[in-house]
Fold this sequence. Notes:
The chain has 16 helices and 13 strands. By secondary structure, it is of the alpha/beta class. It folds into 3 domains: 2-116, no CATH class; 177-296, no CATH class; 335-456, Leucine-rich repeat, LRR (right-handed beta-alpha superhelix), CATH 3.80.10. α4 packs antiparallel against α5 (105-115). The longest helix is centred in the middle third of the chain and has 18 residues, at 293-310. The radius of gyration is 28 Å and the shape is globular.
Amino acid sequence: MVESKSADRLEYLAQKFDIFETDEKNLAKKLKSFEDSKCTYDIIQSSKILAIVHIKNDDTFKQIRGVSVSFDVFSNIVAADPTPNKSCVQWMLTTFSRYLRLGGDGIAQAIRFVEEDLPQASSYISLFEGNKRKQKFKRLCGSSYILKNIRDPTDINQYKSLSQLYDAIDPFILRNSSELETLLQRYVNAEEAIIPFRDRKFTLYIPLTLDASVVFDKFASWCTSRKDNSMFNSYTNRLTPDNKKSKLYIIIDNKFFTEESKDIYQIHFESRQIKNRHNIEANIFEDVIRESEGLSNFFQEELTTLAKQKKNMDDNLYLDFLIQFGFCESLFELIDGETPSIRFMSKDIPRMPDISRFKLLDQLIITDAKMVELHPSIGNLKNLEMLVLSKNRLEFLPKEIGQLNKLMFLNLVGNPLKDIPDEIKYLDASNGGRLFRLAVNKDDIGEENYKKLVGLLPTTSF
Length: 462
């Protein structure tokens, strides 16, 4: 009887989620059905086809996004459901489809869900099913901020993600963090891991083997920490710019070892991931990097080395992490001192460092960078002809800007300047300068400052 109900449920779900075969004949038939109904579609695939996201306009011209799931994904999800009547298959299919409907980063999340996270989902579902009827479970879920929008915590279909389910079953995972510190050291002694940095606040642990990584099995929901199906090799086999295996960096709040804190993070640069123990994307700048000078120095040196090896400044993920971690000055360290041009657009550079070494620079363009401070060393760029600083947050200009006697074009549009240095007059031809045009918005700087500029730069075009 149970098997019959399970079969009926799976048949219903196969129709509900439009399950399709991915062989050439059936795929062509499926795609033609979308074309016949005037739908546009995107095929979602990794090593194989996972789903098709299709879009159709209704009578009000509102786009409707549908998801058809491949039979391979459907089969893997069914196999991952540990319940005897397969009662959680719908939740996993819904979670997968929800990610795809989000588009953008949601597509990457969907792929990770079905290719990496199903073993974790199976484990969490088992814990969920074993504890959901306990009063303690309902009480703890009711007091959880993350689960505040879930009306009935015993209904798995109300959970929006794997991380939400993890938060619900987290108190029921048996763990002993006081023994973890000893275990980590054991792997270091066996040369299966390294601890390159430790201070009074944080420990940085880098596993070199699968066994050294899965010690976090009971402490975090990372796919790299799962004993039954760890993705450790999949991640570390990705190569760095110098053709070495990439690393997993695990940051542990030292209070975690005494169970006073729950903060641990895993970083993998090559896949652009920083995850907390719930496997949720985390911003660690404020709470970690800025709290430890030693850890900050370690990552600045590590990322700068990798960014230099990557060389390409336009598509350099290590450069992006340098900015994210607050090391914007490193951007300039990566540039050849004899370059004639520097261009940064839409990269966060709140404060420009000393740039005196760029003696040959004739173009400096930094736009939409949230810049609040222009370094006085700007005055040492004697060959600068074009300076574009539009869409920043500059309120003041250093007086040294008046030393740029070869400057021909200056763009300050989008900066809320409060004060104009008198020395800017030396840019004008009437005082020996070469400034031909100044781009500035009167609304940004105010009527008074605008009039001051016009008076100090009488021959300059505005």
